Amino acid sequence: MRKRRGEKAADFCRKFSRNKAAVFGFAVAVVFILAALFADVICSYDKVTTQNIVERLQSPSAAHWFGTDQLGRDIFARIIHGARVSLGVSFLVVAISVLVGGIAGSLLALTGGRIDNLVMRLIDVISCIPGFLLTLALVAAMGSGIRNLMLAMCIRMSVGYIRVIRSFVLSVVGQDFIDAARISGMSTRKIAVTHVLPNALGIIIVEAAMSLSNTILSIAALSFLGLGIQPPAPEWGAMLNEGREFIRTYPHLIIIPGIAIALSALAMNLMGDGVRDALDPRSGQ
Amino acid sequence: MFSEMNKYIAKRLVMMIPIVLGVTFLVFFIMSLLPGDPGRMILGMGAKAEDVAAYNHRLGVDRPFLVRLVSYIGDLMHGDFGISYRSMRPVSEEIAACFPYTLKLAFAGSIVAYLIGIPLGLFSAIHQNSPLDFGGTFVSMLLASIPQFWLGLMMILLFSLHWKILPTSGIGSFRNYIMPVLVTALPEAAIMSRLTRTSMLDCISQDYVRTARAKGLPRAKVIWKHTFKNALLPIISTLITSFGVSLGGTVVVENIFSIPGIGNLLLTAIKAKDVPIVMACTILLSLIYCIFILLADIAVAGIDPRIRQIYLKKG
Predict the structure, then answer these.
(1) B242 in contact with A at a CB cutoff of 8 Å?
(2) Which chain B residue's Cα is nearest to A266?
(3) Nearest-CA distance from B141 to chain A in Å?
(4) How many domains would you assign to chain A?
(5) Per-residue pLDDT at B36
(6) I need a labelling partner for B76 at 20 to 30 A (CA). Which of A18, A28, B251, B279 fits?
(7) What is the pLDDT of residues B162-209, one digit of tens each?
(8) A150: domain range?
(9) What is the CATH number of the domain that holds A115?
């Protein structure tokens, strides 16, 4: 069993590394993640918040690689520390949603009955509200800010995961090897851990990887509209919003954060596609 | 065949009723979480407490949750969405004034998206694994990754401020709509092209396509008649649904180009805690979304008899 799992991982790595676009995405993602992890080492947090009116609105130079903003803060430092906020929040939202969706989805599939029916009807209703609109409504009701934004995003994403994982677990449960395990006297919990989970792992990873870029874009958009993460936190979307009034005179204020968002979303998209192709048993040998 | 189709449509329509009620209930519930005091908001901080209480009583917000919900749904049946806290005008009037702009934007955006996305995907699929395919795939991947609001700002920077050929905002003429429509369309075109490509490739590997090729049919005929026709099913379904999505997704675009549509109305209302407007916009846009999902399902069932059969047998 263990050997087979090792083989699977090696197979995955081989397929993934052959996909050049995915490797490129992975490399870019690693750069961003390292920047987020070692933000304090690269430049101190003081530079992110300290206002320096004398040095305001400078174009990129040797002293300030990406220039300075309307309050004289160093944009390079804000982008680096912003990676921590933008990517950190996105990763956390996806991780929590996958966990909630995975547990709730498999529980619903394994128990079935009235509770399953009730929850699924509720999910049907929630799915009828377009995703971005649902997040907007939730943020409107709970108020903006990092915690409420994360909660709203988690609610929206979990609903999708519950659906996908529930139907996947249902399709696994119906198969012969589960019946065989049950007949041979295995407990439901053991079946869930040894048979259902390893099978569902692939689809969970694919779903998570594919939704990362969308999460990054949604969070940036909400912050851009002034409903998500609030200034002075160095979130990329919020930075773009703050720089908007200087579009005529100092376009670097909006060009640079936008590139950071687009590049990280692109990296996640390429990586997600690579992960999906590598885990898909139908894809070529 | 017609009676079967009618049966299917009737069934789906009946199922819409609980969904619509459910959405209304859900939105009403979410909005009731907002700790608001509309009387205080409208009359201002200087007003006397009795006046505020009397005002709240007149608006009916001091009643219990369920009573408010039932009366709200009752009013909705008559097309009455209540009164805006900010402008004190009927919500339905405010929405009616904004809706045409959003509709125009979403409609034109979707059309442009299909016109770019579907041919691009077809082209990629036909030339699979050629440099052109990689180019097309990369462009659609890039468009799916660029944040819509940034794309809009960059277009303003380039076309309005640098080259000065298009107006930055407003709704005066046709030229005002060029950038908003493109910004709405491009991310959607990216999705459409990827979907078209995958759908075509799925069909190309089918046995009947191989048979058609083996018996010596011309390439063009195999592509159009055997592959594209079959690949069309998921494309049509997404095409219809995505129009519903783009109606709700114009918030960002309207904000950037200052278009006085539903999106901007919703955004202003959220910031001003104008609950009746937020509720009405959310319910209305969700309703339209549901209708488009329904239309997509009906279209797919109309084209593919297998889906109709599965559904009728199950229910």
Answers:
(1) no
(2) B145
(3) 7
(4) 1
(5) 66
(6) B251
(7) 888 888 777 778 888 889 999 999 999 998 998 999 888 888 888 888
(8) 18-279
(9) 1.10.3720.10
Token output for B132: 């052109």
Amino acid at B96: A
Q: Would you call B31 and A137 a contact, using CB atoms and an 8 Å cutoff?
A: yes
A186-233 pLDDT tens trace: 887 788 788 887 778 888 888 888 899 999 999 999 999 988 888 888
B99-271 is a CATH 3.20.20.70 domain: no
Segments making up each domain of chain B, as ranges: 99-271
Residue range B227-245: mean pLDDT, rounded: 82
Q: Read off the pTM.
A: 0.89
Nearest-Cα distance to chain A for B223, in Å, is 22
- Over residues A61-101, the pLDDT tens digits come to 777 777 788 777 888 888 889 899 999 999 999 999 999 99
Q: Is residue A3 part of a domain?
A: no
Answer whether residue A222 is part of any domain.
yes
A285 within domain boundaries? no
Say whether residue B186 is in contact with chain A using an 8 A CB cutoff. Answer: no
Question: What is the ipTM score, two decimals?
Answer: 0.87
Is B148 in Cβ contact with A129 (below 8 Å)? Answer: no
